[in-house]
Amino acid sequence: MNPKPSDAATPVVSDFYDRFPYPGDPLQDGPPPGYNWRWCHESVLAAVHGALPSHADEAASLRILDAGCGTGVSTDYLCHLNPGSQVLAVDISAGALEVARERLKRSGAADQVDGLRQEQRSLLDLEGEGPFDFINSVGVLHHLREPLAGLKALGSLLSDTGLIHLFLYADGGRWEIHRTQSALLRLGAGSGAEGLRLGRQLFQVLPEGNRLRQNHEQRWLIDTAADSNFADMYLHPQETSYDLGRLFSLINAAGLQFAGFSNPSVWDLNRLLSGELLERAAMLPELEQWLLVEDLDPEISHFEFFVAKRPVHPNRWEDDSALLQAIGRRQSCLWGWPSSSLLGPDLEPIALSESELALLQAVEHHPETPLGDLNLGPETVSVARGLLSRRLLLLQACRT
User: Fold this and answer.
1) Which whole number is the average pLDDT over 60-80?
2) Of 137, 192, 388, 394, which shows the fewest CB atoms inside 10 Å?
3) Per-residue pLDDT for 83 more than 70?
């Protein structure tokens, strides 16, 4: 007799992903293309805390959980971006895991880490595992019947100093998706091959000026080229989405602490306002500023963020002497290094000045030397702060 699943939606969701293993990224030989800093623990620590732990505080072997790994895209990056770690990847879909195992076999992911396990398990049934230093659960909790139970389960597996990276759907930017889902449900399309056929047909027959068709063609056409991606967006049998208020209520109910967005530029009011209105907005408490961004940008379709067990108080490096005593590390998620022209952590174009390039090269060649002892001149503080603001330089507080 099979045990009752921990979440009521598990059998339905598992069957869905057996039909449509997600994400539908193609398999390839060798490491995954590029990088995603959100899956690099060192980059995450710097983004959340503003500083890296001292060597004495670093875990002997980083423990990572990929909770809801799907076809293994995230696990692949987690292994390659965190060499020497121990990784557990779980998913409820046997079909998705079959693809994940093949993906990681072809990429050589297991050769990068001290241990890799890929298992068909629910994130709700991991008692005895952990504690984990970093938990990745992207696009998973919103497919549970009870997302709060899922978040509490992840929190119970987290180390006291660990971080969880989450991705949950947002109401505002999914208005057209929700309407399309509702229409296909009324048409009895189902969540299988027939639903896929009818869903694609729907966007072909709707008038060109129709808002649902325009939204799909302008925002999601490329993302849903693979059948599994189209099905995940429009045919999923179990889905929850949030506004910012309900999101923070979820985090609080789980007994966890919000530790920052992993797409902070989206929540920057400077991209939406200027002049007097920006000045007024800047006077609001931080949460009110985020709520204002949510009001003003109806295209925010998801929330991506970190949570922790304890309140987070980032190091802003406002003291010059503390900064000069810090140990520097170059951001590992850069494309084109070493060069003065490269791509930054978010794959944005970066142009380094001579002094910026010299500082990054110096910390790479002298990994144990404080910034102030690198003999780079009086501009060291200003150059370092400029690199910090772009997350190109990571700092480790001087050991006392």
Assistant:
1) 96
2) 192
3) yes
- Regarding whether 158 and 53 lie in a shared domain, the answer is yes
Where residue 71 sits, what CATH number does that domain have?
A: 3.40.50.150
The CA-based angle 379-384-389, given to 5 degrees, is 135
Is there a single domain that holds both residue 253 and residue 166? yes
pLDDT tens sequence across 192-237: 999 999 999 999 999 999 999 999 999 999 999 999 999 999 999 9
Tell me the pLDDT tens digit for each residue of 225-255: 999 999 999 999 999 999 999 999 999 999 9
What are the φ and ψ backbone dihedral angles of 90, each rounded to 5 degrees?
-125, 150
Say which residues have a Cβ less than 8 Å from residue 175's Cβ, sequence separation at least 6.
298
Residue among 94, 88, 87 at smallest CA distance from 71: 94
Flag whether 72 is in a domain. Answer: yes
Q: Give the CA distances from residue 228 to residues 183, 304, 379, in Å, rounded to whole numbers and listed in that order.
A: 19, 22, 52
- Please check the confidence at residue 4 and state whether its pLDDT lies above 80: no
Q: Which tokens is 222 given? A: 């490329």
How far is residue 380's CA from residue 83's CA, in Å, rounded to a whole number? Answer: 31
Q: Please answer whether residues 297 and 271 qualify as being in contact, where contact means their C-beta atoms are separated by less than 8 angstroms.
A: no
Contacts of 228 (CB under 8 A, 6+ apart): 20, 21, 22, 23, 24
Q: Are residues 87 and 160 in the same domain?
A: yes
The mean per-residue pLDDT over the stretch 291-302 comes to: 98
Same domain, 390 and 296: no
* Bridge partners for 307 per DSSP: 164, 258
Domain that holds residue 367: 321-396
Say if residue 310 is exposed, middle or buried (CB neighbours under 10 Å; 0-12, 13-18, 19+): exposed
Write down the mean pLDDT value for the chain: 95
Q: Grade residue 145 by pLDDT with cuts at 50, 70 and 90.
A: very high
Residues 266 and 134 placed together within one structural domain of the fold: yes
**Are residues 196 and 72 located together in one domain of the fold?**
no
Q: Domain count of the chain?
A: 3
pLDDT of res. 399: 62
